[in-house]
Design a protein that fits this description.
11-stranded mixed beta sheet, 4-stranded antiparallel beta sheet, about 20% strand, Alkaline Phosphatase, subunit A, about 475 residues, alpha/beta, disordered C terminus
Amino acid sequence: MKLIKLLLFACIAIYSTAALAQQKTERPNVIFILADDMGYGDVGAYGQKLILTPNIDQLAKEGVRFTDFYAGAPVCSPSRCSLLTGLNSGHATIRGNATLTGGVAGKKGKTTVNRTNIKPDDYTIGNLMHDAGYTTSLVGKWHVDGYDTLATPLQHGFDQFKGWLVSYPETYARTYWPEKRYENGQLVTINENANGKRGYYEANMCTDEAIEFLSTQKDSSKPFFLMLNFNNPHSPLDVPDQAIYANKDWPEDMKTYAAMIYYLDKNIAKVKDYLVKSGLSKNTIVFFASDNGPRSEPTKSLTAVSDFFDSNGPLKGHKRDMYEGGIREPFIVWAPYLKNLPKTSSVPGYFADIMPTFAEIAGKELDHKTDGVSIYSSIKGKKPAKDRFLYWEFFELGFEQGVRYGKWKAVVRKNKLELYNLSDDIGEKNDVASLHPDVVKEIQTYLSTARTDSPYWPVSTKGIVVNDTP
C-alpha cells in the first residue's frame, strides 16, 4: 500500500511540474526595451546611414519592424504614462512633463517645476502582468513619479525596481554617472561614481541589472515581465568614450551622440545574447521602441546634431511636436517562438495598445479601461478589419491635438485643423483639409468626445513653454 501511495504522490508531483512547465510555455516571457529621445531615423533599419545599429537592425531582421507605430506623447512623462496605463493623453493622469495648474512643486536643478504623478488607482502593465502570474521587474527610468516618493514601480505592480526617480534627485541619471541608485525601496551608493567619479555608465548599469534579473528566472516555473528603460540618447551628450566614432571627421557633438546610440545598441545585444545562450529566447517576446522624437531640447547645438544625422528621417518635426517627427517611433518585435512572421507591418498602433497586447499574450482578461487594442494579431501578420482613431494632446505651446485615422493625420494647432494624407505625404508638407471636408468632419466629430478634461492641464489655460526637458 505504501508503495502505491508513493507512486501516486510521485505521479501527482510529475504531473504538477509538467503542468507548470506547460503553463509557462503557453505564456511567453515579455521584455519591453525603451530608448529615450531616439528618433525614427536614428536606427539603421529605419534609414539611418551614419550611425551603425547592427544589433537593433538584427532584431528587426529576425522579427517584425512596424513602420507606423507611435509613442504616447511628444515628451517623456505623458508618453510613459500612456505606455504604462493603456490610456492616451486625452484620458491619462499625466499629460505633460510639468503641469499648467496644480501639481506638486519641486526642484529641477535651480528651477522650480510643478509636476503630477501616477496615482494609486492607476492600473499599469506592471499590475496587469503581476495579476496574470508573472514575476515583474523594471530597470532604469520611470519618470511618472513626479515629486511623490510613494509613486514608484513598487506601488504599481512591479516586484522589483532598480533605477532612478525624479523624487530622489540623488539618483537622477541625467548625469549618466549617478552616485545613487534606487533599489527596491532603498538608496544604494554607486561606489564607482562616488565623489564625481565616472566609473559606471548608466546604460551599462541598466544592462547588468537586467541580466541579473534574467539570471534569476532561468529555472522559475513562472513567466516574467521585464521593462528595461534606457536613458540613451537623451541629453546631455555624454559617453565613456566615442567608441568607433572617435576618429571620424565630425564635430565633437556628433561623435558623442553617435557613440550614445552605439552604447545603447551594444547593450541591447548583451541582453539578446543572454536570452539566446540561456535558452530563455525560445519562449520570450521582446519589444523595442523609443518614448518620443529626437532632439531633447530645441537648442541650436542639439538641432544641429539632429539635422546632421537626419534623426527624424522623412518626418516633419522633433520632440514636442505633434507632427510625425515628434511621435512616430521605431518599433520592433522579436519573438523566436512565433514562426512565419511578416518582415514589416504598416498597421498603425501606439503606446495605448501595449496593455491590451500584453493582456492577450499573458492570457489575462483585461477588466480596466484602455484606449488601445491588442496588436498581437498584427505582429503575426493579420491586418485589422477597419481603421480606428489614435489620439494625442499636448500643452506646452498651447493646446494641440493629433489624430491618426487610417491614411489620414490631423493636427489641431491654434484652433485650426490641418489634414495630411500620409500615404503620399509622410513629411506632412501639404495641408489638404480644404480638399476633404468629409474627412475633416468625421475627425471633428471624433474630437468632440475624444478626451476628458484634466485638473492639471485644463484646455481653458493657455499653454506655456515649459523649461523641463526629460
